[in-house]
């Protein structure tokens, strides 16, 4: 995908904390001591922990709390703030998608749920330590890595993963220093998935539209460039395509092949920015500038379809190449999960934790949900369904007596371990203070919030 001429505007977000001052509240307390109440043996309290506070973590917790009257759920999160990709991935002009945060907040406010941010599982506390402290552990830590292009020039300044770029415009602290140079007039996005389209739309959108946070019906001031040759023969095959994709394909086909009406033609003629979708191209090399210090273009191999049956159809290189000048290359060819702990099985090829319906293979009491369970595909509702299923399976195992019997210490044990290691978690009420600060700063600039970027500042605001 190639984009021309944009302007830019940056949004924003934080480190490790020092111990809270004496007297500061710990995480949302369930007993005066902050731990889940133990009942008699017959009414034992299942102590469950979830790793990751994105949609998978929160939906898993929500389902467990709803379907077990006594279960207590601790959510561990490596960032200082909750909500995973809902905060750091979903594009800023999709505020209605971010509304799921209201449901997650209700879950976090339950007396049987506690959020512990600023805890990196696998570093600050190990998965075996969590398994020792809880009856069950659910891994919901998403897919934080990205697929590499594996082509020459990939390391040049000006080439970024869409993961990092999205993190930058969404205020993810680890990406706040990214500083992409947006003064060039062409950007190439490799990939045409949802993330690639989000990135394209954000690059093309005038800042004032993002500030108003209105959903875009059309991209103002832009015109599409689609090559009708790429769509040859598609008309005949459109009938076979599943419904949502059919509508999208029809729209593209119309845009590429039909002459626009007078009004639309005038709008396009006055557009200062353009975007296009390029099909049958595969990245071959990132081309350096003359001094070798910056990206200057990308070499694409031209491909054609080699007919096979169904999935066996493959794109093969024709031998021709095409050079496309650009100042920015964003690779959007997929996210992938990382292994979290040597004790947890991991399939490096699929980039997931091997599991059956959410039960981690060969590790009783260990479960997974979300992108780390099924791979980085699907939207929030897909993640919800998948997380409810994992939770259901866990509760079935609990009922069938397949989880450890006898009481477990839960957070009491982990809290002691963390403080012995100098790790001081932040609670959900801490997040609510930061949230209030962001909203109040946003009011001054006409935005729903101004994200805090600096971790040190966030900790200072929490009195740490
Ligand atoms: P995540 O949301 O990534 O949550 C994982 C959490 O685990 C994170 O908070 C992370 O910090 C934490 N974590 C990671 N490692 C550790 C560790 N070691 N210890 C403790 N915590 C850890 N879906 C839609 O429905 N609509 C959209 O508009 C939309 N836009 C998207 C835009 C982008 C750029 C992307 C990438 C995805 C988008 N999605 C959208 C998809 C949606 O975000 C995912 O389906 C969903 O977030 C997956 O949930 P998850 O909980 O598995 O992963």
Structure characterization notes:
By secondary structure, the chain is α/β, with parallel strands linked by helices. It is 31% helix and 18% strand. The strands form five sheets. A six-stranded mixed beta sheet has the order 7-14-8-1-10-9. It has a five-stranded parallel beta sheet with strand order 4-3-2-5-18, with helices on both faces. A three-stranded antiparallel beta sheet has the order 11-12-13, with no helix packed on it. The longest helix is centred in the C-terminal third of the chain and has 20 residues, at 380-399. The radius of gyration is 24 Å and the shape is globular. Mean pLDDT is 87; it is low at 4-29 and 213-217. It binds flavin-adenine dinucleotide. Flavin-adenine dinucleotide (FAD) binds at residues 51-57, 76-79, 84-85, 89-90, 94, 97, 120-122, 140-142, 144, 166, 195, 198, 335, 340, 370-371, 378-380, 383. Residues 51-57, 76-79, 84-85, 89-90, 94, 97, 120-122, 140-142, 144, 166, 195, 198, 335, 340, 370-371, 378-380, 383 line the site of flavin-adenine dinucleotide.
């Amino acid at each position: 995908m190639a984009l021309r001429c944009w302007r830019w505007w940056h949004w924003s977000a934080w480190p490790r904390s020092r111990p809270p001052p004496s007297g500061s509240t710990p995480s949302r307390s369930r007993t005066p001591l902050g731990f889940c109440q133990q009942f008699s043996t017959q009414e034992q309290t299942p102590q469950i922990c979830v790793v990751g506070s994105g949609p998978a973590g929160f939906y898993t917790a929500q389902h467990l709390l709803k379907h077990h009257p006594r279960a207590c759920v601790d959510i561990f999160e490596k960032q200082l703030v909750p909500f995973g990709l809902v905060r750091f991935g979903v594009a800023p002009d999709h505020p209605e998608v971010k509304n799921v945060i209201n449901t997650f907040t209700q879950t976090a406010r339950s007396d049987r749920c506690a959020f512990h941010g600023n805890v990196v599982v696998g570093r600050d506390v190990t998965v075996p330590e969590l398994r020792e402290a809880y009856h069950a552990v659910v891994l919901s830590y998403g897919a934080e890595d990205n697929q590499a292009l594996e082509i020459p020039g990939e390391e040049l300044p000006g080439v970024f993963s869409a993961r990092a770029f999205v993190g930058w415009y969404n205020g993810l602290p680890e990406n706040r220093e990214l500083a992409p140079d947006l003064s060039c007039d062409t950007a190439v996005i490799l990939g045409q998935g949802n993330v690639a389209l989000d990135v394209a739309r954000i690059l093309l959108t005038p800042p004032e539209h993002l500030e108003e946070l209105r959903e875009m019906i059309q991209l103002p001031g832009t015109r599409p460039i689609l090559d009708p040759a790429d769509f040859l023969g598609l008309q005949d095959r459109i009938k076979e395509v599943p419904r949502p994709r059919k509508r999208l394909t029809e729209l593209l086909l119309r845009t590429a092949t039909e002459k626009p009406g007078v009004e639309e033609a005038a709008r396009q003629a006055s557009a200062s920015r353009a975007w296009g979708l390029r099909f049958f191209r595969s990245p071959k090399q990132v081309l350096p500038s003359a001094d070798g210090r910056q990206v200057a273009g990308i070499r694409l191999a031209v491909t054609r379809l080699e007919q096979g049956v169904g999935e066996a159809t493959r794109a093969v290189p024709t031998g021709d190449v095409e050079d496309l000048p650009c100042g920015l290359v964003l690779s959007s060819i997929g996210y992938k999960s990382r292994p979290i702990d040597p004790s947890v099985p991991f399939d490096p090829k699929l980039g997931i934790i091997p599991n059956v319906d959410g039960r981690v293979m060969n590790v009783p009491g260990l479960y997974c949900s979300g992108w780390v369970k099924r791979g980085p595909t699907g939207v929030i509702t897909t993640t919800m369904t998948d997380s409810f299923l994992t939770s259901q399976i866990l509760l079935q195992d609990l009922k069938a007596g397949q989880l450890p019997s006898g009481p477990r210490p839960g957070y009491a044990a982990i809290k002691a371990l963390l403080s012995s290691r100098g790790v001081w978690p932040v609670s959900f009420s801490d997040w609510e203070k930061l949230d209030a600060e962001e909203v109040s700063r946003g009011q001054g600039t006409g935005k729903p919030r101004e994200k805090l970027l600096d971790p040190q500042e966030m900790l200072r605001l929490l009195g740490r």
